[in-house]
Amino acid sequence: MTNQQKWKALSRILDQRDVYYRTLGKLSFDQSCCAPEEGLEQAGEDMAVISQQCYKITHSKRYERLITELHEDASGLGHTEQKLISRLWEEHSKVKNIPPELDYEMNQVQARAYGVWLSAKKQSDYSLFQPVFQQLVELTRKTIDLRDESYRSCYDALLDDYEKGGSIEQLDAFFDALKARIVPLVRRIVTEGKPIREDFLTRPCPIPEQEAFSRYLLELEGLRKSALVLMTTEHPFTTNFGPQDVRVTTHYYETDFISNIFTTLHEGGHALFMQNEPAEFYALHAADGMSSAMHECISRFYENLIGRSEAFIHFIYPKLREITGDTFADVSERELYEAVNLSRPSLIRTESDELTYSLHILIRYELEKAFVNGEMDFADLPAAWNAKYREYLGVEVPDDARGILQDVHWSGSYGYFPSYALGNAYGAQILHTMKQELDVDALVSQGDLAAILAWLREKVFSIASISTPDEWIRAITGEPLNPDYYLDYLEQKFTALYEL
Hints:
Layout: H1 3-33, H2 40-58, H3 61-72, H4 79-95, H5 100-123, H6 126-145, H7 154-162, H8 168-192, H9 207-221, E1 228-232, E2 238-240, E3 246-250, H10 257-275, H11 279-283, H12 292-306, H13 310-324, H14 333-340, H15 357-372, H16 381-393, H17 418-434, H18 440-445, H19 450-461, H20 469-477, H21 484-497
Parallel strand pairs: 1-3
Antiparallel strand pairs: 2-3
Helix pairs in contact: 1-2, 1-3, 2-5, 3-4, 5-6, 8-15, 8-21, 9-10, 9-13, 10-12, 12-17, 13-14, 15-16, 15-17, 17-21
């Protein structure tokens, strides 16, 4: 067979695989958004069965032979096809030794864990979640032990999975840099910062009004309504089944309208990435190949760098007043800007402010590193969590629901959390570069986000799925990841905001 014939044969297999992947994703979406509580376990069983079909396809001798031969010689194929082959071969090398029984068990337990986590969170009882949590981590370790490649530790392997080149050594240095400048600034704000008006933040805002504003924000970001779904769930996320079917979720709180605004902007950022990858990537099965931090970079970009800017608040302020009527009639534009940027150590990561957010990620990183590598007993995790919140943020954790059970991530994955902090840093560095070419503040103040999206489409989305993180950020900004852009941005913004 020629390489072109091999590629066509592989494409037919990938077509079939993707049908199962989409089916699995839709079952997962249903489980998270609309399945009744009693139906969660059945949904998990169905997902495990579908996963078996994915396993069969990606572990077949024909599939393995094709990607191995094309990995060794991809001459005659295009650049995108060659990049995809390298990614498929690398992914396959990590899972090829997993027996079907272990793969099924892993998927079954992972699918069941979501319902267990949801119930444990509602009852604020970590002991209900601990057994399945521990089982998942142990199964994860087993799958990594089966790999041909050796790693310094199990957690190093997971970090590299989410962010190629990622390691404990790299992230320790990254978080040390963040700690050195963020922690002192947080303390200065607590002791020296000017008071910010916040009484209106808990005013009741009817959910229909919040939903209307969410749809307005998604349209303002530049999403195509005809290819978009907006629903609610306990822990918001975004998923896609191709550029024509992108699904955003949020969570409405009647007495916390701010939460929904920035959740919607965040998830809308993910959706923009999904809707704006090159059509070629989808046609060649190369789409959605970016790292987690690349994805979080764009969601945090729209949530914070754009969404919490003075320019953005200036533009949306009249629309917010229009949709909510008299609810915020006595709140000025400046008061709204200051309130949405209020910085205060808090309990909940997803509701935390822009400055302290990465400290929440640091806590999860340090705990993941310990329990994944077997350096901490699972029974001790709630106490360790609470102690770190006391140490880094100076807050007391009142219960498991607002503590160790607040995030859905540990019901299925480990090593993802650092992506949020890395995404923050990528975003600030990209914004610095963008501002050399665009008057970003002027565009945002006029609500012209189309020019920003066009820039991202050309510079950022066009190469993400076929680049390593280091290749990607260098291509966009001309240098490797440099957290100083992020830290400079935070210091300048919050020093001015709090008149330090």
